[in-house]
Amino acid sequence: MDAERQRTGKKRRGKTPQPVEETPDDKAQSNCTDPELHSMRTNNKGWESCGNAQASVDGACQIIVACDVTDASNDQQQATPIAQATLANLAQAGIERPKDEGGIIQAIPVTLDNGYDSEASVEALETLGFDPYIATARQRHHGPEADAPATSLTVQERMAAKVRTPAGKALYARRKVIVEPVFGQSKEARGFRRFLLRGLANILGEWRLVCLTHNLLKIWRYGGVLGTA
Questions:
Q1: What is the number of other CB atoms lying within 10 angstroms of the CB of residue 150?
Q2: Which parts of the chain are beta strand (E)?
Q3: Which is it for strands 38-41 and 64-70: parallel, antiparallel or unpaired?
Q4: Residue 152: helix, strand or coil by DSSP?
């Protein structure tokens, strides 16, 4: 392109590109311990090299249906892959999707915190056959209720109104007794507060082992009850 411009005498449109600077910026960071992971903000407002652990949990016995670990610092891109993994594992286990009395497949209700809030996440979950309830902001204990969401609103506005309906608030409140305790049990009851291995593939295996032991404990606890139901 530069040769063509020199031949025709035409000037480049826009700003002239800056030369490539080979020297790294003073604030540039490199993780020498585990280059596959990124620095993420932690609960104590510090920064550490972390893996972002994901889990999809059923609402009956807190069984982890699917799990993953990514190097992404936020969850906005994680709703779709964990939903796909959930469907794949359910199909592999021979568990059919819920159906109504007429045999029509029903959408699976799913609750996600505001870290997953994005238009792409909502649309992808609905396409995959889920009925998402995603918080678009921090939930207030006594926030105003809303009527059924109007179709003229944006995706996120409709989601915010949907979660504020009486049915939406009741369903989203179930998240506090479904998925959040799973992470609490892993951290507090079993003392798993940090990955001990290095490399994304290795910490994924570590997280899967933690989830496996969690499921075994749940099956041991609820297996007898479910077997006699």
A1: 10
A2: 38-41, 47-50, 52-57, 64-70, 108-112, 130-134
A3: unpaired
A4: coil
Section 20-26 average pLDDT: 66
Closest CA to 212 of 74, 79, 70, 89: 89
Q: Tell me the per-residue pLDDT of 189-217, one tens digit each, with 9 for 90 and over.
A: 889 988 888 889 999 999 999 999 999 99
Sequential DSSP letters for 101-138: TTSPBPPEEEEE-GGG--HHHHHHHHHHTEEEEE-SSP
Its pTM stands at 0.75
The dihedrals phi and psi of 194, each to the nearest 5 degrees, come to -160, 150
Which strand (E) or helix (H) includes residue 81? helix 79-92
List the structure tokens of 37.
Answer: 């992971």
Residue with tokens 């020498």: 32
* Residue type (1 letter), 191: G
Kindly give, in sequence order, each residue whose CB lies less than 8 Å from that of residue 57, ignoring residues fewer than 6 positions away: 63, 64, 65, 178, 179, 182
